[in-house]
């Protein structure tokens, strides 16, 4: 356990730079988005009211108030989120390959540590989770500050204030990363963790058996997906809806846990017996 | 410990930020207004069994929301759209109680009230299943899937029967299931292909089955869409009785015939004529009720198996008239004052239970009020009269709509 | 004692090791000699469980390799074993964090011995100094066995001398060492035992001192006899 925590800390320090860069980009681009978009809106308001002599009330009925939802639905806002998602996806592969590739053969050191090699797997997967949740947490902290900037930029009459929760629930894109309820949050990120575990297993297969491992990895992933959806397939195609929804849900959770356990076991086996420097 | 500070910090930030967000969203009060039924006259006790189901739509802070809700005597309960709730779904109360009582039997059965029949001896279920052919023109091999639970013996009889003439059919839907005199009746809506005109014609069909021998005793159409009338649109609706899982000797159908006028540029609907038809499952006889019901003026609002409740909205007043099928005559009409403010012309939702009539308007907003009425059907006395209101006046906003989709009486 | 028994290893269809067996005792320096590509590094990797073998068995003091083994044996590979952006000090701290057998005192001693600066980044080191850092990290572990892969390859003369000095110092005393090399001359006089490898098998395993004393042959003489004779 102690070694695991040491390794997680070590791995986190390795990614902290990339992580900070992603946070920085998110902060700068989203803040810029708030400023640019409120200026655009105010600019339009000025133009319509001063040049086209539209009354304020008329402008508000025609164009509406600006709310944070407008800002969230722009590239300024969703772009950095997509970038962060891509960054994490990229890092899922990098977290392993960086130890093998090029001059850096840190994998020698990792595999020679006097601790179970599964800790390496756990440390790397924990890191992916910490990085992801860190980005989500940062976005949650950022939202009220961005709303504050909007408040400073736009006069009350033209503005429609929304709470953080309201902002998130009103935009489907955001509910993907910040689901409405904690249960969903656990399920979403649990499923994500499972997917990463399957990918890690496939990566370790490639590391163990090279190109044959790629085929094995693809097959393993396909099998895992098949196992995961098999209860739903059976329910729909063979059993004619035999299970009640709650039962099916529990079965799916059990399936997920089984696939996760098999992936962990398989990864442990590969790291111990099959992996090569 | 110093070298762990970044790691410790990020974990702390994650837990605090995400934790705060979900704790806050769990404890923060609903922003949406609370609706209450405000008494104008009568006894609020009469509201006890009443549940109004609907949805609230508002432009709360410029942000469009739509939330499902339930209004009872106690107030408003917004349906929690939590993941698990959505997953489990919310079957009708009848189905829910059947699922609790007969968990094994109810497995894999479509949760629609009209597919079930229950009396003290049997719980029966019938639905239509089919194999999808290679193309839609191919016959779909329609089969009745029938399951009958014998409550006393606690045994289940499951069997399938090929739908006769299935090769001519494009769709078969089950409208109702009834056991009368030990015979199983399945009432369906069939879409039958006519090879001559290459068109589909709708019909209501009844299949009578000998449950012991699993054989058709007979089957026949109840009402058929007339052929050769290309310029009309014909529609047959089965009017589900209150508590359709219970035994009803009489079925009620409503046919609507609309004239379709084709101009060079557009198609529009011309004259509409409606006809109500009752069907007696025991005698297999049907009867036209049109003259009695005066459907030009009245709407059919409820059917409890023995009486049809006709409603007619006139300004702020609604007139309810029962028509007794057995006596073949109209009963006394009752006039209910719904609200003082102008309201829409859509008739209110009506439920009949235990000799009482429950009525509620189906819409409310800042210009329209919604009334709730409980009345005694025998005497015509109003037992309760009230109005839906927003509890806290500061919650009142300009732009909102409350729709009542359904009313339930427990 | 490290026992390598009938180890076979394939890369694809090519058999690199075809039943290699030898032993290395504590307190002895065993030298694996063979031309490049003969599988010397593979044997060391296999001992450290860094690459799977198809057949055979490797035992350390009678037991198969497991995670605890890494507190008893250290491997000094011919590759970077620490992150390039780490300083030498950070690398030492890393070792201290994970190994209970890490000897910080000895690590500092080695730092002085090799004249390395603790604040230097590993990426900025010369080939010779990189090899020295590797040695430092391997030797500062209080382990019974040390494996070294080509410690002299590609290293300048002076560094070579410094490294060779390690073998005569107390740093090696009482430990079992397996060293691979294709240039035996630098350490010929230090070697206790020689394992000659060719074509995936051990062609000769002999005691270097005995050969010197009994037959009056140097290690190179024996090699010549085996490979050319």
Automatic annotation (TrEMBL), chain A:
TM stretches of this protein: 15-36, 75-97, 118-143, 186-205, 214-234, 246-271
Key words, A-Z: Membrane, Transmembrane, Transmembrane helix
Name the UniProt record assigns to this protein: ABC-2 type transport system permease protein
Native source species: Salinibacillus aidingensis
From TrEMBL, chain B:
Domain of life: Bacteria
Name used for this protein in its record: Uncharacterized protein
From TrEMBL, chain C:
Pfam (any one): ABC_tran
UniProt domain ABC transporter: residue ranges: 2-224
PANTHER family tied to this protein: ABC TRANSPORTER ATP-BINDING PROTEIN ALBC-RELATED (PTHR42939)
UniProt protein name: ABC transporter ATP-binding protein
Annotated source species: Salinibacillus aidingensis
Superkingdom of source: Bacteria
InterPro entries listed in its UniProt record: AAA+_ATPase, ABC_transporter-like_ATP-bd, ABC_Transporter_VariousFunc, P-loop_NTPase
Listed SUPFAM superfamilies: P-loop containing nucleoside triphosphate hydrolases
